[in-house]
Amino acid sequence: MFCCFIFVCGMRGQELKEVDEARRREIIREVDKAASSLKTMQCDFVQTKRLSMLNEKIIAHGKMYYLRPGLLRWEYTRPYTYTFVLNGSKVMLKSVQKKDLIDVKSSRLFQEIVRIMMNSVTGKCLSEADDFLVTIHSGTDTWIARLTPQKKEMKQMFRHIVLHLDRSRMLVNAVEMVEKSGDTTLIELKNIRTNASVDEKIFALD
Amino acid sequence: MKRFLLWISLWLTAMSAAAQTVWTDGAPFVFDAERKARYVLYLKSPKADVTGISVIRREENRLLGSVVNEFGLKAFDFVYDTRRQRVKLLNVAAILDKWYIRKVLKKDLRFLFSCRTKRRAGSSRTLSTGDADGCITLENRRFGITYRFTPMMPADTVPDSPEEPVCEHRTLQTITTNTHRAHIGKSLHAATKFRES
Question: DSSP label at A145?
Answer without folding.
Answer: E
